[in-house]
Amino acid sequence: MKATDLLEVRDAGLYCPPGGFWIDPVQPVDRALVTHGHGDHCRPGSAHLMATAETIAIAQTRYGADAFAATQVAEPGEVMRIGDVDVHFAPAGHVLGSAQIVVEAGGARAVVSGDYKRAADPTCAGFEPVACDLFVTEATFGLPVFRHPPVQDELDKLFASIAAFPERCHVLGVYALGKAQRIMAELRARGYDRPVWIHGALSKLTELYGELGVDLGPVRQVMAADKAELAGEIVLAPPSAIQDRWARRLPDALPVGVSGWMQVRARARQRRVELPLIVSDHCDWDALCATIREVGAETVWVTHGAEEALVHWCREQGLEADPLAIAGRGDED
């Protein structure tokens, strides 16, 4: 069997014919194997959901306990027989519970990486490269211009701004799942022991991280604070909220963008960000290329982002490569 016989693209997304299941389907299906809990990869309504325990908990927190008729936990490294293929989940390093899905049959192996990053993250297991014949990779930042600096360098900018403007409230625009909790954990690792204030939209998933064993330190909701109490404090909110009426309750708010997209100045200006911090939960260009080399796949399928540039690079390396252009993939906010 060829690795390309293991997967094919259909209207509902990526399908495994010999296994009879879908991976990160874009619409409800009978059996969905899901890489992680972001809404563009994990959607409610499928009859059967297989994912890591953390991803199942995230999905049920976001969509409700009855969002799926049945769920099955995939333990990391456990090999499961589904139809005519063997399947196991390997860490992807994207957010808590994120995984690559490894499919094998007839001596061929395909890996669907989902979203992934190679930078260290204190809130989730790091990416584990899996040798394979077919590698399905994202390309969110799949252009050579994207090279992400170390997160500690970006936090230095934040602390320098707080020192320069101690009377201002620094409000960080972060995704509700993954980015918010990673920033909290990175702040704690730097010795920041003050409460981190959060928008209510971040509370459920932040509480879930705590329940799942991720220590984020003292966290408080903005709605419980007096305006004066927030002067000089760090507040986390969804990116859309930092320019919303909600932000008016904050004392002299300084908008901070926290995203790999902050490398694009036009994006920062568009969101009226005063302090752009380049912190991403995806690979930059160098990490994408290094990962493709490391897994050793002869065939690479590219989706979600600047597909053509990465496909071109792969072909220059002598690899078979094609864009997938799966509908429904996008930013987490």
From TrEMBL:
Cross-referenced InterPro entries: MBL, RibonucZ/Hydroxyglut_hydro, Xnuc_lig_assoc
GO molecular function: exonuclease activity; ligase activity; RNA endonuclease activity
EC number(s) recorded for this UniProt protein: 3.1.-.-
Spans traversing the lipid bilayer: none
Residues forming coiled coils: none
Record keyword Hydrolase present: yes
Keywords: Exonuclease, Hydrolase, Ligase, Nuclease
Name of the featured protein: Ligase-associated DNA damage response exonuclease
Protein's organism: Pontivivens ytuae
